[in-house]
Amino acid sequence: MFCFPYAGGGTLPFRHWWKALPSCVELYLVQLPGRETLVRETPLTSLPEVVEAVVPELLRYLEKPFAFFGHSMGAFISFEIALLLRSRYQIQPAHLFVSGCRAPQIERTKPPIHNLPDARFLEEIRRLNGTPEEILQNPELMQLMKPVLKADFEVSETYTYTRTAPLDCPITAFGGLQDPEAKRSELKAWCEQTSAAFSLQMFPGDHFFLHTSQPLLLQTIAHQLQRLDANLNRREMI
């Protein structure tokens, strides 16, 4: 399973997920330019750029059945990568997990924040409740993080969905009950993006329920992946 980060995020939130997942699952954490070991690279500012940068790195690992998990911005990235893999290479994920993100066909109604003055931008970041206060209060650290945060929000806020045929793989959508960024109806609309099974599960928490409700979230993902592995093994035996 490949995990795609939310805006401003990296691989850290996912590094211990393997402990809660079935032993049959190999976990791969997608790292984007501008953070962690790629900190010297310039952050990308459009979703097509991100997709084209990531896909060549993924291809070497796609000989086995694979699943995608993406939260917020990561959901859009994983979805568009799935579409590109289908159109260009005739392969698709065995399962797509999208989290904390409205369905792509639903237009964004809130004004963008990536082009706000720094002070206003940081106010909005604080409101989302995904960045620890000690980091927000550290001017030097925020000076390093701001270019990545602004670039990532530009990726999400300028993303334009092009209507296409639904994916053939199942989609599971996750949401936070108190998340104003992705309401239940907006999450449920992901059902239009698959011709296979769709399920929706809501968890206690705001936009970053993947931290506060992590045990429940991972339990659900593990159950889905176990079922997927059993189905794949059954097909091989036929």
Strand-helix topology:
Elements: E1 2-4, E2 28-29, H1 47-58, E3 67-71, H2 73-89, E4 95-99, H3 118-128, H4 133-136, H5 139-157, E5 171-176, H6 184-188, E6 198-203, H7 209-212, H8 214-237
Parallel strand pairs: 1-2, 1-3, 3-4, 4-5, 5-6
Helix pairs in contact: 1-2
Helix content: 40-55%
Annotated CATH topology: Rossmann fold
Tell me the radius of gyration.
17 Å
What would you call the structural class? alpha/beta
What characteristics describe this protein?
8 helices, 6-stranded parallel β-sheet, 6 strands, alpha/beta, Rossmann fold, 238 residues
Descriptive report:
The chain has about 240 residues and is α/β, with parallel strands linked by helices. It has a single domain, classed as Alpha/Beta hydrolase fold, catalytic domain (Rossmann fold). Helix content is about 40%, strand content about 10%. It has eight helices and six strands; from the N terminus they run ββαβαβαααβαβαα. The chain has a six-stranded parallel beta sheet with strand order 2-1-3-4-5-6, with helices on both faces. α6 links the parallel β5 and β6. α1 packs across α2. The radius of gyration is 17 Å and the shape is globular.
Task: Briefly summarize what is shown.
With 238 residues, the chain is α/β, with parallel strands linked by helices. Helices cover 40% and strands 11% of the residues.
